[in-house]
Amino acid sequence: MAKNILVLTGSPRKGGNSDKLADAFIAGARQAGHTTVKYTTADKKINGCLDCKTCYSKGGACSIPDDFNELAPLLEQADTLVFATPLYWFSFPVQLKAAIDKFYSFFIGKRALKIKDCILLVCGGEEDEYHYEGIIKSYKLIANFLSWKDSGIIIVPGLHDKDDILKTDGIARAETLGKSL
Predict the structure, then answer these.
(1) Is residue 111 included in any domain, yes or no?
(2) Is residue 63 included in any domain, yes or no?
Protein backbone atom coordinates (compact mmCIF):
# COMPACT_ATOMS: atom_id res chain seq x y z
CA MET A 1 0.00 0.00 0.00
CA ALA A 2 1.41 3.37 -1.02
CA LYS A 3 2.20 5.75 1.80
CA ASN A 4 2.45 9.52 2.08
CA ILE A 5 5.91 10.10 3.50
CA LEU A 6 7.05 13.43 4.90
CA VAL A 7 10.81 13.87 5.21
CA LEU A 8 11.83 16.67 7.57
CA THR A 9 15.43 17.75 7.10
CA GLY A 10 17.36 19.65 9.71
CA SER A 11 20.60 20.78 8.13
CA PRO A 12 21.29 24.37 7.13
CA ARG A 13 24.01 23.06 4.76
CA LYS A 14 22.43 22.55 1.33
CA GLY A 15 23.57 19.40 -0.43
CA GLY A 16 25.36 18.19 2.68
CA ASN A 17 25.59 14.69 4.08
CA SER A 18 22.18 14.52 5.77
CA ASP A 19 20.57 16.11 2.69
CA LYS A 20 22.08 13.36 0.53
CA LEU A 21 20.87 10.78 3.06
CA ALA A 22 17.33 12.19 2.79
CA ASP A 23 17.46 12.19 -1.02
CA ALA A 24 18.60 8.56 -1.10
CA PHE A 25 15.77 7.53 1.21
CA ILE A 26 13.30 9.47 -0.96
CA ALA A 27 14.61 7.79 -4.13
CA GLY A 28 14.09 4.36 -2.58
CA ALA A 29 10.62 5.22 -1.27
CA ARG A 30 9.55 6.55 -4.68
CA GLN A 31 10.83 3.38 -6.36
CA ALA A 32 8.57 1.46 -3.99
CA GLY A 33 5.59 3.56 -5.12
CA HIS A 34 5.28 5.91 -2.17
CA THR A 35 4.57 9.63 -2.36
CA THR A 36 7.21 11.77 -0.68
CA VAL A 37 7.49 15.38 0.37
CA LYS A 38 10.80 16.83 1.52
CA TYR A 39 10.51 19.80 3.88
CA THR A 40 13.72 21.64 4.62
CA THR A 41 13.27 23.24 8.04
CA ALA A 42 16.48 25.27 7.69
CA ASP A 43 14.94 27.19 4.77
CA LYS A 44 11.95 28.17 6.90
CA LYS A 45 11.26 30.54 9.72
CA ILE A 46 9.83 28.44 12.52
CA ASN A 47 9.96 30.01 15.96
CA GLY A 48 10.03 28.02 19.16
CA CYS A 49 6.79 27.18 20.92
CA LEU A 50 5.74 29.81 23.48
CA ASP A 51 3.25 27.50 25.23
CA CYS A 52 0.50 30.10 24.80
CA LYS A 53 -2.03 27.27 24.32
CA THR A 54 -3.91 29.16 21.58
CA CYS A 55 -3.03 26.64 18.86
CA TYR A 56 -5.59 26.47 16.03
CA SER A 57 -7.60 29.33 17.59
CA LYS A 58 -6.69 31.86 14.88
CA GLY A 59 -6.90 29.77 11.74
CA GLY A 60 -3.44 28.17 11.61
CA ALA A 61 -1.79 25.54 13.74
CA CYS A 62 0.25 28.21 15.52
CA SER A 63 -1.36 31.47 16.61
CA ILE A 64 1.93 33.26 16.12
CA PRO A 65 2.36 33.29 12.33
CA ASP A 66 5.43 31.51 11.00
CA ASP A 67 6.23 28.73 8.55
CA PHE A 68 4.97 26.01 10.88
CA ASN A 69 1.53 26.87 9.56
CA GLU A 70 2.59 25.56 6.12
CA LEU A 71 4.18 22.47 7.67
CA ALA A 72 1.16 21.50 9.81
CA PRO A 73 -1.04 20.38 6.86
CA LEU A 74 1.84 18.26 5.54
CA LEU A 75 2.10 16.57 8.94
CA GLU A 76 -1.66 15.95 8.92
CA GLN A 77 -1.43 14.26 5.49
CA ALA A 78 1.57 12.04 6.30
CA ASP A 79 1.44 8.34 7.08
CA THR A 80 5.17 8.16 7.80
CA LEU A 81 7.49 10.84 9.18
CA VAL A 82 11.23 10.77 8.53
CA PHE A 83 13.74 12.91 10.41
CA ALA A 84 16.89 13.38 8.28
CA THR A 85 19.39 15.38 10.24
CA PRO A 86 22.93 16.03 11.26
CA LEU A 87 23.88 15.55 14.89
CA TYR A 88 24.26 18.96 16.61
CA TRP A 89 25.48 18.84 20.18
CA PHE A 90 24.15 15.30 20.65
CA SER A 91 20.63 16.15 19.46
CA PHE A 92 18.55 17.77 16.73
CA PRO A 93 19.61 21.10 15.19
CA VAL A 94 17.49 24.06 16.28
CA GLN A 95 15.91 24.41 12.84
CA LEU A 96 14.34 20.96 13.12
CA LYS A 97 13.82 21.07 16.89
CA ALA A 98 11.63 24.19 16.59
CA ALA A 99 9.32 22.29 14.22
CA ILE A 100 9.24 19.26 16.52
CA ASP A 101 8.40 21.46 19.51
CA LYS A 102 5.38 22.81 17.65
CA PHE A 103 3.93 19.30 17.26
CA TYR A 104 2.40 20.38 20.60
CA SER A 105 -0.19 22.35 18.60
CA PHE A 106 -1.91 19.10 17.59
CA PHE A 107 -2.55 18.25 21.25
CA ILE A 108 -3.78 21.69 22.21
CA GLY A 109 -5.87 21.95 19.06
CA LYS A 110 -7.19 18.39 19.56
CA ARG A 111 -6.18 17.43 16.03
CA ALA A 112 -5.16 13.86 15.37
CA LEU A 113 -2.24 12.95 13.17
CA LYS A 114 -2.53 9.86 10.99
CA ILE A 115 1.22 9.19 11.18
CA LYS A 116 1.76 5.55 12.11
CA ASP A 117 5.51 5.16 11.80
CA CYS A 118 8.71 7.16 11.80
CA ILE A 119 12.36 6.88 10.82
CA LEU A 120 15.55 8.59 11.95
CA LEU A 121 18.41 9.22 9.50
CA VAL A 122 21.29 10.89 11.32
CA CYS A 123 24.90 11.61 10.51
CA GLY A 124 27.65 13.62 12.10
CA GLY A 125 31.30 14.13 12.76
CA GLU A 126 31.45 12.01 15.88
CA GLU A 127 33.05 8.61 15.17
CA ASP A 128 31.72 6.77 18.21
CA GLU A 129 28.03 5.85 17.95
CA TYR A 130 27.82 6.42 21.71
CA HIS A 131 27.62 10.14 20.93
CA TYR A 132 24.35 9.59 19.03
CA GLU A 133 22.54 8.20 22.07
CA GLY A 134 20.97 11.60 22.93
CA ILE A 135 19.28 12.09 19.56
CA ILE A 136 18.24 8.44 19.40
CA LYS A 137 16.69 8.63 22.88
CA SER A 138 14.82 11.84 21.98
CA TYR A 139 13.59 10.26 18.75
CA LYS A 140 12.41 7.12 20.54
CA LEU A 141 10.65 9.14 23.24
CA ILE A 142 8.85 11.19 20.56
CA ALA A 143 7.80 7.99 18.76
CA ASN A 144 6.62 6.34 21.97
CA PHE A 145 4.72 9.40 23.17
CA LEU A 146 2.92 9.76 19.83
CA SER A 147 2.34 5.99 19.46
CA TRP A 148 4.40 5.85 16.27
CA LYS A 149 6.24 2.70 15.28
CA ASP A 150 9.99 3.11 14.86
CA SER A 151 10.58 1.79 11.34
CA GLY A 152 14.31 2.29 11.32
CA ILE A 153 17.32 4.23 12.48
CA ILE A 154 20.35 4.81 10.30
CA ILE A 155 23.46 6.36 11.84
CA VAL A 156 26.35 7.41 9.63
CA PRO A 157 29.19 8.57 11.91
CA GLY A 158 32.53 10.19 11.14
CA LEU A 159 31.40 12.68 8.48
CA HIS A 160 33.05 16.08 8.44
CA ASP A 161 33.21 17.39 4.90
CA LYS A 162 30.22 17.95 2.64
CA ASP A 163 30.55 14.78 0.54
CA ASP A 164 32.00 12.39 3.14
CA ILE A 165 28.81 10.33 3.07
CA LEU A 166 29.68 9.25 -0.47
CA LYS A 167 32.63 7.31 1.01
CA THR A 168 30.28 5.22 3.20
CA ASP A 169 27.42 2.77 2.76
CA GLY A 170 24.98 5.34 4.21
CA ILE A 171 23.42 6.29 0.87
CA ALA A 172 22.80 2.64 -0.03
CA ARG A 173 21.35 1.89 3.42
CA ALA A 174 18.99 4.89 3.23
CA GLU A 175 17.78 3.95 -0.25
CA THR A 176 17.23 0.34 0.83
CA LEU A 177 15.23 1.49 3.86
CA GLY A 178 13.10 3.70 1.60
CA LYS A 179 12.40 0.76 -0.71
CA SER A 180 11.49 -1.51 2.22
CA LEU A 181 8.46 0.44 3.42
Answers:
(1) yes
(2) yes
Q: What is the pLDDT of residues 121-167, one digit of tens each?
A: 999 999 999 999 999 999 999 999 999 999 999 999 999 999 999 99
Q: Count structural domains, the chain.
A: 1
* pTM more than 0.85: yes
Count of alpha carbons within 13 Å of 151, Cβ hemisphere only?
A: 21
Q: What is the mean pLDDT of residues 107-120?
A: 96
pLDDT tens across 43-84, in order? 999 999 999 999 999 889 999 999 999 999 999 999 999 999
Predicted local confidence at residue 59, as pLDDT: 86
Asked whether residue 134 is assigned to any structural domain, the reply reads no
